[in-house]
Amino acid sequence: MADNATLARRLLEAFNERNFDELAEATAPDGTITIVGSGDTFKGPDGSRAYNTMWADGFPDGKVTIDRLIESGNYVVVEFTGRGTHTGTLATSMGEIPATGRSMTLQLCHVMEFKDGKVQSQKAYFDTGSMMAQLGLTSGQTASQHQ
Q: Tens of pLDDT along 77-99?
């Protein structure tokens, strides 16, 4: 069995490959993915598929790049950058966001807990305000413009 850091890296590669079957199979039957800002929770393999296809549908050319990965026991923290063009509908719990045609770069962090080689829990952290501003859906500057 691969170590948890290797599993986490592979899951991000599988997203870039749009290998949603692999992502679903890597999720425990009672595993959860939670978007921390909204509290939206996706459960089990079907939830994994829904979470990942949500992003891929909204950003068909979207790719992620790992910036930092830290492993400690059953936990892996991955900071990564997502880049893509919003050319599809992004379905959210607050409603669908129709394609804007805008490019976006978003800093994300996943805190993943593994059990028996499967994702038991994954918490997804990202700045929704920056995302909405980059998509032209709010006024104001993104956090990255202040650096």
A: 999 999 999 999 999 888 899 99
The answer to pTM > 0.85 is: yes
pLDDT tens-place string over residues 20-73:
999 999 999 999 999 999 999 999 999 999 999 999 999 999 999 999 999 999
Q: Which residues contact 31 (CB under 8 A, 6 or more apart)?
A: 43, 44, 45, 47, 48, 118, 119, 120, 121, 122
> Can you give the residue ranges of every domain in the chain?
4-139
User: What is the number of residues in the chain?
Assistant: 147
Domain 4-139 fold: Nuclear Transport Factor 2; Chain: A, (3.10.450)
Task: In whole angstroms, give the CA distance from residue 136 to residue 85.
Answer: 12
Q: What residue has token string 């599988």? A: 14
Dihedral pair phi/psi, residue 16, rounded to 5°: -60, -30
Contact partners, residue 126, CB within 8 Å, separation at least 6: 37, 106, 107, 108, 109
